[in-house]
Amino acid sequence: MPGSRHRYEFIGKTPTIFAIIGVLFIANIFVSLALTFAGKYLLPKGVPNSHPCPELARWGIQNSVPACVCWYASRSDAITLILGALLALLIFVFRKNIRRVR
Known about the structure:
Number of strands: 4
Largest sheet: 2 strands, antiparallel
Structural class: mainly alpha
Radius of gyration: 19 Å
Number of helices: 3
Shape: elongated
Helix content: 55-70%
């Protein structure tokens, strides 16, 4: 239906913390999706000091990966949730500086 779309913008300049957390939120989603769908092609095989990761195994990735990749894979959903909650909190904090654009 034309005209039913809502858009909001900050009055003046966008707060820096909102921009930083927004970029981290989008980057986290992109990296998480890339790891999930293209991990078997992107992750190298036979990396020294690597271990099998049960979190990646549920997506069909059988490569042994470094511990930091396994840590991220097991916590990426929680990181996304926390960053999304921080964005919602910042919108609530700066609600006086947000206006609806028609």
